Amino acid sequence: MIISDFAIKRPMVTVVSMVALAVFGLFALWRLQTDEYPDVQQPVVMVGIPYPGGSPQGVEREILKPVEDAIRGISGVDQVFGTAFDGYAQIVVVFLFEKDIQSASQDIRDAISAIRQDLPLEMKEPQLRRMDPSDFPVVSLTLSSESLTPAQLTRIADPAITSELRGIAGVSQVTTVGEVKRELTVQIRPQALQSAGVSVGQVVAALQSQNLAAPVGRVNGALDERTIRLQGRLDDPRDFAQLVVAERGGQMVRLGQVADVIDGSQEQRSLALFNGKQAVGIDITKAKGYSTTALSAKVIKKMEAIKKTLPPSVQVDIVRDAGIRVEHSVRNVEEALFEGALLTVLVVFVFLNSWRSTVITGLALPVSVLASFIAVWAFGFT
Fold it and tell me: Residue range 227-242: average pLDDT?
């Protein structure tokens, strides 16, 4: 009653307040970030433990069971799910919602450290990752070609394209899928090695000592200082073939005399297919606090510029664009709000048969909705 009496007795203040709420609401709506998921920290932690050479049964017995038992003793744990793979154990820990995710991650590390002496020595350090819906890629695209190999596409994608995409504000991570990375292979010829009197250890030592880049000191001048750096990192098979492996009878034995250096590629550990053809995929993940639609538009714009620099035979396809889906969701919400407001005004007019009540309802609905956007923007919601 107090508010209604004040509004009736001071109509000018009421009108100005409604206009101010509408104006600030429109401003807040314009400044609101649009995201696919709410910014809620999920109390879920995924633990990955590499155990090279272990069978699934061995991983379950040696790694999974003792670690699960240790994690179940942590306060706030709701559920624990474990899966044993070939040489890898994966544990998903679900905590109660009131559990702080940072404290939960530290508790898991402490629990594993407490039983580390009981675990196999071959076990690698556990890898902890918090499950967050925002970690899913915002934009996924593929590179494919009829004439280029996956290895050549990989060199185009990384680092050429990935470095450009990482420079976009709001990009948290850019990863490649189905890549075939370059690898220089040294195939030793046993007979030539024996004839030269060189051991395999000498070859390995020569590669380690001569294929490096490191700072070696600095030179001080009267008014300046210059850093000296050893540029010994090799990139071409011919350069590797000239490496000195040993010295026999005053003659230098080079790597090319006892081994073949092949410019090849690593063993492919992942595969990306698009429309049945092998391709190289690129996933772009959004950083926290940025709009999904705005970041998606920036990535698409950047890719349009990058396409002009790619070879004509390379085809770029957008596989997933979360910005489009978010735009459709927002448009559905806007349409639902408009239809709901229209039906409300229509119901008031039909049942009350009063223009005055209809106009009041028609003004109150948009003002109240716009005013709610002020609170949404002020509290940092999307």
Answer: 70
134-182+268-321: which CATH architecture?
Answer: 2-Layer Sandwich (3.30)
Q: What is the pLDDT of residues 139-165, one digit of tens each?
A: 888 888 888 888 888 888 887 888 888
DSSP secondary structure code for residue 121 in this structure: T
- Hey, what CATH topology would domain 183-265 get? 3.30.2090
Task: Please name every residue paired with 317 in a beta bridge, in sequence order, or none if there are none.
Answer: 142
| 1: pLDDT strictly greater than 60 | no
Strand order in the sheet with 77-85: 77-85, 88-95, 44-50, 127-130
Burial of 201 (0-12, 13-18, 19+ CB in 10 A): exposed
What is the domain partition of the chain in residue ranges? Answer: 2-35+326-378, 44-131, 134-182+268-321, 183-265
Bridge partners (DSSP) listed for residue 157: none
What is the pLDDT, as a whole number, of residue 104?
85
C-beta atoms surrounding 347 within 10 Å: 12
SS (H, E, C) 36-87: CCCCCCCCEEEEEEECCCCCHHHHHHHHHHHHHHHHHCCCCEEEEEEEEECC
Q: Report pLDDT for 358.
A: 74
